[in-house]
Amino acid sequence: TTPFPVFLLTSMLRNTVHPLKNTRKYLNLGFMSCKAPMPCQQPASHHFQCITNHQLSSIEAKSQLLSMQKRHFQTSAPLLTEYQDFPTQQMQKMKEVESDFGKIRHMRNIGISAHIDSGKTTVSERILFFTGRIKEIHEVKGADEVGATMDHMDLEREKGITIQSAATFCEWRKHHINLIDTPGHVDFTIEVERALRVLDGAVLVLCAIGGVQSQSITVDRQMKRYNVPRVCFINKLDRIGADPWTVISQLRSKLGLNACPVQVPMGTENNLQGLVDLVEMRAIYFNGKSGEVIEYGEIPEYFSKLAQEKRAELMEKLAEADPEIEEKYLMDEEPSVDEIKQAIRRQTLQHRFIPVFMGSAKINVGVQPLLDGVLDYLPNPAEVDNFALKKVDDNTEEQLLTLSDSKAPFIGLAFKLEESQYGQLTYLRIYQGSLKVGDTIYNTSDKKKIKINRLGRMHSNKMEDIKEIGPGEICALFGVTCASGDSFTKNQKEQIGMESMFVPEPVVSLSVKVEDKKTDKQFSKALARFVREDPTFRVSQDPESGETIIHGMGELHLEIYTERMKREYNCPVVTGKPYVAYREAIRSQVPFDYLHKKQSGGAGQYAGVKGYFEPMDPAQPEKFIFENHVVGNNITPNFITACEKGFKEAAAKGPLVDAPVWGIKVVLEDGQMHSVDSSELAFRLACHGAFRQSFPKGQPCILEPLMTVEVTCPTEFQSAVMGSLTRRRATITGSEMSGAFLLVKCEAPLREMFGYISELRQLTQGKGEFSMEYQEHRAAPDEVFKQVQQEYAQRKKAESAEKM
Fold first, then answer.
1. What is the C-alpha to C-alpha distance for residues 688 and 55, in angstroms, rounded to an integer?
2. Which of 57, 396, 449, 536 is 20 to 30 Å apart from 702, CA to CA?
């Protein structure tokens, strides 16, 4: 058994982010150890000092002490109720701003995220319908050729997938909800990244058949990166093979979440009759033409036993996370509905509990209770602490807590750019202050002055003009020239910026050229716009061939952009074969000693550098490190900077296949210089020469992108699919059976996965599908290394022939 001081210490350490979470528990223990006459009237601080007197075992003591408290104080109410309504730093500071706080409490900013084909756009469509935002329901691939509201691009409706995130707003139970529907395909993961960066809560949609899939894991990682509380919605319960309990098990095992259902389906597949609400212990039926009529009733006897079991599981999981429910649980007391909801809300906001809702959006089951859950369990803007970075001096930044207060100085973040029928749109999240038409704001990155002439709220691709918008809101600006991730204030002297978002590196490249030289101008416009809108879309030019190279997150990503050039700019392009974004590295330490000397009349060039190159782990964030170990003035300080710049330039294009060099440390130990002939240029050229001379001696290798691949196919094609993956150098990491379908998980080089969808469909009679996600760059085998070098040499030879 663990003595109380240790137990309390571990509890305090575990809850350092929210030190007030277990206040009541600590005070209870303090009360019981206090030697003062009962009932003690000392302040809370006195009882904190009494805690360390306890030497009882944790489990025994909790039960005994709670019993003593109930007898002695005739109460089990929280002792510090004033803190429960203001759990964040921001809310404590906003206590006095009643007007804003009343409005903020009735606001939610949420995103709908999921693996591709889990039904999130269908969920968004139903949310808009049930909140009265739209009058008719349209499907993702509707027979009426209209398509879902949030998929407004023609390409989205043709392909049946979400390509760009779309924003809208609606009202539910007198609450204002800003909603962003995000793509599920891994190639468009930046859309999810920047949406979660500005949202306060999210709904993670999961397929009742597929469960936790590759993009589900990616989305979970993104939500954790930005500390976004979430609820889960298990969709497609009407489909054959639906198994919500397996999905919940995967949420716990694969994502490490304390997930627990707050609903039980009354039947599955073709027999889905409704849901059981485990919090209020009642049946929910969805009647009417489109499930818009909600009716409550007694739980049918057939489902009563399952409901009781899952209710007991809910209370046990909640007691593990929440101290107040834990006390009730230990005392065998039944908490009220309000107490349960408050506990779920508290722990959802602290990421310690994930409520799981269920239903089928396609047949209009479960969406309204999900909306209730969004209001009950996800935070309003004041319940999330967001920080800006304020520049103190050239080397120092301090965190500044933003307040959802309209009277505070304005701070906003541009998180998405889009060209629309209204012109250039900039999506803005307002973290502090307010914005009106006619106001002047400043871009903190370039100090440019911007006059707000038009302000709007977006409903997919439609716009509603507004005159003013307050803190916590999401809006659209027009005619603003900026980049995604720029911050805005109303004070030109303020050097404030919101924390940046994570942008993954591109993994696929493609050469493109226009079919008709007359469309060069449109081609340049299209590229400039796409680069501005999408941080993962990059453009470069091969210095030798002059070809334009576009870089992106996958084949589909680049295919969409080339198709958009044709449709939106009337600029058809010819594409080359996609090639992989390789990287170069060394595997052993190698010294360098290089003297650059050139004399051609007049001032010459003279510079010497000496040191060594050392390999680092290519997976670490820093890909290049330069260290100066020069003693004395063999190289003066003004030339050390030139050396670092020269080595960086050399590492940007390695000597093997012109790929960037990753995972290399350059240590400069000594050098030579001349009082007249040494210059910055001379030292940069000396570094280039040292790199070219010594890099090949350090056991160089090629790093190739490794992808996490998931293949789903009928079990009858298992052998053929496994064989096809093995031929593509895939390493099988696991497989799962789900009804008549098999899910194969593996790791495979991106190089080998080009064109796999065609082979998979041929092998499985069109019934197989796969998804892949970038995992890391890993050293390629020697035979692949040689093959890549041969392909590079052939490409360069062909480019030289074209020039002649």
1. 68
2. 536
